[in-house]
Amino acid sequence: MKALVYHSPGKRSWDDVPRPALQSASDAIVRVDAVTICGTDLHILKGDVPAVDPGRILGHEAVGTVEEVGAGVLGIKRGDRVLVSCISACGRCRYCRTGGYGQCLGGGGWVLGHRIDGTQAEYVRVPFADTSTHLLAPGVSDEAALMLADILPTSYEVGVLNGQVSPGDTVVVVGAGPIGLAAIMTAQLFSPGHIVAVDLAEPRLQAAKQFGADITVSATDDPEAVVAEVTGGLGADVVVEAVGVPESFELCARLVRPGGRLANIGVHGKPATLHLEDLWIRDITITTGLVDTRSTPTLLRMLTTGQLDATRFITHRFPLGEVEAAYDVFSRPQETGALKVVLARG
Questions:
Q1: Average pLDDT, the chain
Q2: Per-residue pLDDT tens for 148-165?
Q3: Distance (Å, rounded) from C-alpha 182 to C-alpha 147?
Q4: Among 275, 299, 316, 257, which Cα is nearest to 160's?
Q5: What is the 3-state secondary structure (H, E, C) of the chain?
Q6: Residue 195 burial (CB count, 10 A)
Q7: pLDDT value of position 334
Q8: Which of 28, 99, 250, 252 would bridge 294 by S-S if both were Cys, CB 3.0 to 4.6 A apart?
């Protein structure tokens, strides 16, 4: 089969590799019907995630058809159409028993495209298949479901829920890429008073308006002054960091009000300065997190009932074999306007 293989920072290729086989009774083999690229994949290619070994197949988001299941798999069968979650869950460890699947101690967590071969391939082995896949209703499209593999639960859980967005809040989202836009979309479920989007790229600020931000500001145009004006000088109730660079995190810390919440979603490859000399007296709550995907069933129900239009994130479509071209487009969003790219089996 073909798969997108990571070789070293900056080096990847669409290679012939062995088709995966069952390794455990809890495994499933899934034929990949649709897959996407995540900003985290770009971080891997930059060398920001050193745990990824050369030779690893990348990708942790997919929709596909079950080809084979292990003897211990009871919830899905050959021929079922499933969402493959970005997080795998053993379902038995201390964290899984309390919904903290991202911290799974039993061999799960974020493993696909990280510690085991991932989804940017024609077939993928999914460990703990009963607790790491979701059956899809006939009316849910592959493309819509694919957006629930990572970006929507990540933004909802790590940004909106960790940030405790409440009615009337002023919410600032720093970074209007796919994760930031998903935070803007799901923050609206809690009726905030204002959503302010901050980004460097004008096309992404325009996208933020379409996704529900009522105020947009370039990161070069003094967002601190804009937020101060909106909040009467207090600062934002909730600030969501959705970039993953030191400058954006430090900006978020300046934008949040005393007693406010800073929810970091971005994947950081370098240290950021935490100015405790300023923050200690302001009662700031800072949260970080890897998504647990415990919200995926809820989001799927909202997708089914039409409360979420997940396909709005998709800007480019490619055949699966054109993954190199898709990476090129996705990695140059300021030029291409790319939000999410979908690669589909022909």
A1: 97
A2: 999 999 999 999 999 999
A3: 9
A4: 299
A5: CEEEEEEECCEEEEEECCCCCCCCCCCEEEEEEEEECCHHHHHHHHCCCCCCCCCCECCCCEEEEEEEECCCCCCCCCCCEEEECCCECCCCCHHHHCCCHHHCCCCCECCECCCECCCCECEEEECCHHHHEEECCCCCCHHHHHCCCCHHHHHHHHHHHCCCCCCCCEEEEECCCHHHHHHHHHHHHHCCCEEEEEECCHHHHHHHHHHCCCEEEECCCCHHHHHHHHCCCCCEEEEEECCCCHHHHHHHHHHEEEEEEEEECCCCCCCCCCCHHHHHHHCCEEECCCCCCCCHHHHHHHHHCCCCCHHHHEEEEEEHHHHHHHHHHHCCHHHHCCCEEEEECC
A6: 27
A7: 85
A8: 99
Homologous superfamily assigned to 2-149+292-344? Medium-chain alcohol dehydrogenases, catalytic domain (3.90.180.10)
Domains of the chain, by residue range, sit at 2-149+292-344, 153-287
In the block, residue with structure tokens 């990280």: 114
pLDDT in tens, 47-94: 989 999 999 999 999 999 999 999 999 999 999 999 999 999 999 999
Q: Judge: domain 153-287, CATH 3.40.50.720.
A: yes
Cβ 313 vs Cβ 145: under 8 Å: no
Percent of the chain with pLDDT over 70: 100
At 301 the pLDDT is 96
- pLDDT (mean) for 142-149: 98
For the chain, the residue count is 346
Q: CA-based angle 158:159:162, to the nearest 5?
A: 65
State the pLDDT at residue 328: 97
Distance CA 84, CA 237 (A): 34
